[in-house]
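Aim 2, interim progress: modelling of the Z57-bound target.
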Amino acid sequence: VEASIPEPQRDAWKKFQAKPFVSKDDFEKEVVRHVETTLARSMFNCDETAAYAAASLAFRDRLITEWNRTQQRQTFADTKRVYYLSLEFLMGRALDNAMLNVGLKNIAKEGLSELGFRIEDIINQEHDAALGNGGLGRLAACFLDSMASLNFPAWGYGLRYKYGIFKQEIVDGYQVEVPDYWLDFNPWEFPRHDIVVDVQFYGGVRKYQDEAGKNVAVWEGGEIVKATAYDVPIPGFNTPTTNNMRLWSSKAASGEFDFQKFNSGDYESSVADQQRAETISAVLYPNDNLDRGKELRLKQQYFWVAASLYDIVRRFKKSKRAWSEFPDQIAIQLNDTHPTLAIVELQRILIDMEGLDWDEAWTIVTNTFGYTNHTVLPEALEKWSVPLFQNLLPRHLQIIYDINMFFLQSVERKFPGDRDMLGRVSIIEESQPKMVRMAFLAIVGSHKVNGVAELHSDLIKTTIFKDFVKIFGPDKFTNVTNGITPRRWLHQANPRLSELIASKTGGLGFLKDLNVLNELEKFADDKEFKKEWAEIKYANKVRLAKYIKSTTGVTVNPAALFDIQVKRIHEYKRQQLNIFGVIHRYLTIKAMTPEERKKLAPRVSIFGGKAAPGYWMAKTIIHLINNVGAVVNKDPDVGDLLKVIFLEDYNVSKAEIITPASDVSEHISTAGTEASGTSNMKFVLNGGLIIGTCDGANIEITREIGENNIFLFGNLAEDVEDLRHTHNYGSHTLDPDLVKVFDLIKSNAFGDAGAFGALTGSIEDHGDYYLVSDDFHSYIQTQTLVDEAYKNQEEWITKTILSVARMGFFSSDRCINEYAEMIWNVEPLPVGKESGLGKEE
Ligand code: Z57
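Predicted structure of the complex, ligand included:
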């Protein structure tokens, strides 16, 4: 059906086209209109929730106007597009971001104030969009911001979970999970009830030869689930480009099938079908860096991949190009192995539905995909059982076997007779049951594979993917070090620092070209500047101190050293090392004379982060932190010298308050385990120093900011294997200071020690896999260096200024430009002057 307005009528259309507001008055008019008509309220019935809703709708209207123009521009230009497939998008709040990116926050602030509201209160009404677990999901969100800000034609594809990551409550020191139902009121999404894709599951495959003698496979039977598109506009910073994030929601295929059941009196089972279908997009799996192999998760993956591929292929087919041009028009990036089925699905579409030859199709497929690996942890590498696959996706399993056969044949040709090699690299693991190794499939089906920091990219080449480097050559493997968006993580989270930087570097240009921060180096010894810089840090600490008081009831001194570790709770991230260090500090303070205590720098140890609901050891660590806090915080011998805080329900909007308030933050994973880390970048960009191991992006941060400006400690990645071997087969004596810490825990000083037996036992009796004891001494010593360094505030401030000045490299803009050049081969689409963009400096 032709949906365009006929040519002669287009002038009338254009005359009445929506015009984005640019003035305060127009903004207020829009807010009042939305309160009175969209929300059906009045000035006598307009609370902060209503004001938030109306302000968001006003900005949404504005975004969607630019969104439409952007989509038209990209369609007409017909250039190559990027599709970023991610099962997680940890977006956080949208209103503040939208106001800042379109440059109208000041107008909104004045407008809201004239209507009787404080903008901060309005911003705080918004529920976080928390469709992600941690680093991987937040990286995807930063990438969307950068791709729009750099004018790349790019879409994100994901799942519209009804429940995002759970909300964390702390009850008696324990984590309790509460469901996160976030869709009650979400003004940022546009349901596209006209964009619905049928997705098939189960059934069987019928094979036959057609008249021409060609082998044909038909996947038939099984059940159909419907995928409905929900679009979320992604505004670029200081550019009209507004990209799209398309999220899929599942619904039962209502139609004859249901009707039949209904009419035959089987009402209950037709409702049950409906519910079963809706379960697919119901909930985000709450595991970070862990694969649990559940059938529903595989269903989610295929549901999302099939709908996205159908959409991408449909858009390509409209251009009427030859199939061979597919990779010239489309780049698809796989965010971890979660979307690896897209490789198989595209091959299936091309050979089964479009009738291409295997080889022709496979060339298209491999030239289209790029795969990003985010971890080397064995428990996080996805594997699916063959029987499960066979049942759910029978045709895909056949195609995987064929991909594997052709691949192993090519390996055999290259390394004749090397049977061990064939076993090691096979996509099918010959275990009981057999398993599909998704990372291997992703490598074989992509033209580039990248890690997310230099050390990590080197590690994957020399360990888990070593054989594949031999097979495909080193050029297939590359590194793109992660980055973060300076819009959210500096401008939005730390407006005063952003303003100060703007005043010294000639405006907000640094937010688009973060290397401009270099210009701050000349202020590193400037008295006046340092004073302002320190005042801003102090104000951010006061803000966090107030937040701590209001949420935990504990009073902390903003002049104390704020030492922060916020991230998912995981043994490899070693929050246990941190809390054992805190206990060691407590013991030290208790043993000091009052005179000695006066010389010690007061400290606040702040923790935050969620444990996966089934991860007992992580939950035990949270419990210990809370119990230590309960004892230490009320000990009169300690007073201000040490406070221990656990912040409930760490998420993106809380990170925006926490990150600007650190003096030091901790990034202390066992060397070789944290692929990159990204909060390390956020903290340094906000004028905090870090204490960290030689792991992930810490290494490149050190290279950029200089080793005098970072507190590194601990064993190196290259020594980890030998140390583990010694623990298991040699003699394993614990660090004596750590033994004292354990003795205190075992004396029930922090409640019944039985609760922490598994935690201390994992180190004492079970091999200390994460090297807590090996690194303990080095950690404690380095913390002492931190205490000393903090006493010299003049030098400390200089270090933080120099560090910020040298952080340009870690912008996700740099990162996206590298992907575009090395992997996607796409270019930005320049924007003309047609847009009515409001600019604020
Ligand atoms: C996740 O958040 C990360 C890796 C994974 O394999 C999964 Br599953 C979830 C994280 C890494 O642990 C971080 O080191 C990294 O910075 C982040 O992904 C983004 O690359």
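The mean pLDDT is 96. The longest strand covers residues 223-235.
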